[in-house]
Amino acid sequence: MLKSFLKRVIRSLGFDLRRFDPEHSDSAQFKQMLSTHGVNLILDVGANTGQYGQSLRDLGFNGHIVSFEPLTEARKSLLRACESDPMWDVAPQAAIGSEDGEVDIHIAGNSVSSSILDMLDAHSSAAPDSVYVGSERVPLRQLDTLAIEYFTTQSVAFLKIDTQGYEDKVLSGAAKVLDNVVGLQLELSLLPLYKDQLLFQAMVERLGAMGFDLWSLTSPIIDSRNGRFLQIDATFFKST
């Protein structure tokens, strides 16, 4: 009865209380997946200010993290976040895509929604703080150009991509990397939020054709006006 009472009190405050195990916690499930596959290197593409890397450390992951972030101000915060962590590196400043060159990135008011692609009304109307407030021209590099140097013969690598609709372009420039990772995680959209982006089903089919099986769907971003899922984190591992 005490447990039920505590749950009701916590939920009345807008929170929930769950066990930290794979059946009840997305984070515990992800930790178990990384451990099961022996992952010791994580490539964090679209690192922003280091939120993902910090969450990995909070989970107890003590392997090598390499973060990729193109925007100058976000990258400054990222460098501060990992400055005391010798196992967390930041790659040279560049956006990641299908070719090497230069590209303009739209800067969102909330920073995390910044993208190379134009934002659609479905996104900005659901999250007004995400509207673009500026832009920055940055180098554009294939992941194969920047990431391979971080691999060793002992690496068991995992790739995370959070590039706000640009995920398919990242994959197109990552053939060598994809050959050398055991799994990957992408934030995928369930309806068009950015112009010309590939949606959830198309991305699942593309990765399936490349030999990756869908393992989990977690951390949905929801339109608070109606409860509709907008984006979701999809985790894949190579078929065995």
Automatic annotation (TrEMBL):
GO molecular-function term, one example from the UniProt record: O-methyltransferase activity
InterPro entries reported for this sequence: FkbM_Methyltransferase (IPR053188), FkbM_mtfrase (IPR006342), SAM-dependent_MTases_sf (IPR029063)
Annotated ranges, domain Methyltransferase FkbM: 44-213
UniProt cross-references to SUPFAM superfamilies, sorted A to Z: S-adenosyl-L-methionine-dependent methyltransferases
Pfam families found in the cross-reference section: Methyltransf_21
The name this protein goes by in its record: Methyltransferase FkbM domain-containing protein
